[in-house]
Amino acid sequence: MPVSPDFTYDVVVVGGCGHVGLPLAVAFASRGLKVAIHDIDARAVELVSSGRLPFREDGAEEVLAKAIADDKLYVTTDANVLSEAEAVVVVIGTPVDEHLNPDPRAVKRALLSSMSHFRDGQLLVLRSTVYPGVTRGVEHMFEESGVNVDVAFCPERIAEGKAMEELFSLPQIVSGRTTRARDRAASLFKNLTDSTVELEPEEAELAKLFTNTWRYIKFAAANQFYIMANDHGLDFDKIRKALAYDYPRAADMPGAGLAAGPCLFKDTMQLAAFTDNSFQLGHAAMLVNEGLPLYIVSQLERTHDLSTKTVGILGMAFKGESDDIRSSLSYKLKRILEFRAGDVLCTDPYVTVDPTLKPLETVLEQSDILILAAPHRAYRDLVTDKPVADVWNFLGRGSTL
Ligand SMILES: NC(=O)c1ccc[n+]([C@@H]2O[C@H](COP(=O)([O-])OP(=O)(O)OC[C@H]3O[C@@H](n4cnc5c(N)ncnc54)[C@H](O)[C@@H]3O)[C@@H](O)[C@H]2O)c1
User: Fold this and answer.
1) 199 and 217 in one domain?
2) Helix (H) and strand (E) counts for the chain?
């Protein structure tokens, strides 16, 4: 698809150096689109401009390097680039605050500060996960400004680490108030996938929050079952595998484990705020998932005098094979152990942003007890004679504590 003569770029991704913005930008570039990234993080912009990823994302670095070399991707901190693209995709972070309140103004604030760069005829795609009603608010903002853009909301549903596969395989939810906005957004995403599903904007906003909350509740159910079984000296993972064996209705029951990260918890809390904090199931899921680190420590205290022991935490990222420590429960585990254990040592093969981490060998050697917090493949063949708490049953030695 050639770029419209009015524009230099087919698409600019705002927040395009982030965990979901960057894979999206390189995916578009890999399909031949002329793509720009605008991001306020100067360090990330420099890194990405040189063809390097600021974080782990399987299969993305080669595609990024090629896009830069082929002159298909331009990366800048200069917001002027917004006026040069036919489609502006916004995928900035939308975290909840320390009191678990969403910030429904985050996306509007970012757009307000770059309002002067928008031009008549552009397509604006909101892709951040938003509090319901944000799309409507953005539409109003543009109506009031007098700039005539088509606004669409097309939520991102990839899992970190699988973006370069899932961007091309997952159906794309497309929403827009007008047929033109929806059609333009659909044709943009048809560059990645033929499978699109249309919803009204308010439906699409809820679809994204329901998707993440559903997953979070499933993890909580498994973690609650784990605690029940474990309190009776029984191995949840053994029970789970037996009940799911050749039994499709239970095939989606997840294993137990630390359910964390930058999305599932905060999107469940966004939904809770949306229902005036009367989302009992969501809050219950939060208590179970966020409570698991404390449960693990309390269980270990029944058999070990932790106050005299050094505890080693294996894996500080929020999930296996990731280097992302945002909202990682490994750090909650660490904080609990800092006042309940003699000493705490932490390690992770991928995390690069925490200078306190130790090499795996040091942690294995100096710890009395180990806790497997993130199931990285590097731990699959762990050799140690120390006790290992492994609620995941990742090592295949049972999950009981
Ligand atoms: N991480 C995931 O797996 C995932 C999956 C699906 C959806 N989402 C949603 O996508 C959104 C982004 O998440 P993320 O994990 O990529 O966040 P992130 O923090 O990794 O990336 C956000 C990027 O936006 C940039 N940014 C912030 N404000 C900006 C502004 N005003 N102008 C330009 N750039 C700006 C930041 O510098 C950063 O590079 C969130 O709404 C999140 O809920 C995330």
Assistant:
1) no
2) 13, 12
The predicted-structure confidence for 185-195, as pLDDT tens digits, reads as follows: 999 999 999 99
CA distance 388 to 363: 12
Residue 328 tokens read as 């990682």
Query: Domain with 32 in it: what CATH number?
Result: 3.40.50.720
Which among 24, 55, 156, 160 is the best mutation to test ligand 1's pocket, defined by most ligand atoms within 8 Å of the CB? 156
Query: What 3-state DSSP class applies to 75?
Result: strand
Nearest to 89 by CA among 127, 129, 32: 127
DSSP 91-129: -------TTS---TTHHHHHHHHTGGG--TT-EEEE-S-
Q: What is the pTM of this model?
A: 0.96
Tell me, yes or no, whether 257 lies in a domain.
yes
122 C-beta neighbours (distance < 10 Å), count = 23
Based on the fold, state whether residues 344 and 251 are members of the same structural domain.
yes
- Ligand 1 cavity residues, CB under 6 Å: 14-15, 17-21, 38-41, 44, 91-94, 110, 128-129, 156, 158, 160, 262-263
Question: Which H helix or E strand runs over 11?
Answer: strand 9-14
Express each pLDDT in 98-127 by its tens digit.
Answer: 888 899 889 999 999 999 999 999 999 999
Tell me how far apart the alpha carbons of residues 205 and 102 are, in angstroms, rounded to a whole number.
14
Q: Quick check: is 395 in a domain?
A: no
